[in-house]
Structures are given as C-alpha cells and as structure tokens.
Design a protein that fits this description.
globular, mainly beta
Length: 125
Amino acid sequence: MTTPNKTPPGADPKQLERTGTVREIGSQAVWSLSSCKPGFGVDQLRDDNLETYWQSDGSQPHLVNIQFRRKTTVKTLCIYADYKSDESYTPSKISVRVGNNFHNLQEIRFSSVQSLSRVRLFATA
C-alpha cells in the first residue's frame, strides 16, 4: 500500500530540496540501464543539464534500475520529460517497481504516458 503524495503536482524538485522539503538520494544508489547509445547513459540521465538525456538502444522493455545498498524508503520519484524535444523516443508507459532484489519486484505504480520523452529521475526521501 502506498501513501498519497503530498508534493504538489508540477512542483520543482530542486526548489523543494533548497527549502528542505525533500532530500535528493539518487547518489546513494547504483544506477544501471537496460541499454543506451554511447554518450547517452546514466551520467546524462543524472546530470542537471536539461539538454542531455538517456537514450536507449536495443530491444524493449527499456529499463532504469536504481538499487540502494541498504533498505531505503523513497517517498517521491520525480521524472522530468520534454515531449517537444524528441517525440520519437516518447515512452508510452512507465512502471515503478520495488523489492528486495531484482527477482521479487512488485509494481506499485503504472502510468500510461502520452507526453513524456527525455526522462530525468530525481529520487527523494
């Protein structure tokens, strides 16, 4: 069971971090991708440059795996996307799954997406 998100929709995660409302914890995790084109990997996914992004390369599904070294409660997951910049890579759905290891993941959120493209993840706790 998940609790309702109390962060207002469209809130700027960086502004929330500056005010102490949230804390960025992505640096505490190991990030991996199912595939990527050279120069469009985890570093570009995680940097603060809105001109850079992750671009998958290979068969679907395209996955971003975020593994924490110890049990971690994530309260908010922010995804930045810019449909206008590159609609040809727009995902049609996003699934968020959690578990103790890769083999026991359970889906906790699913969204059909019609206007996402470049995805930036910002995990907070």
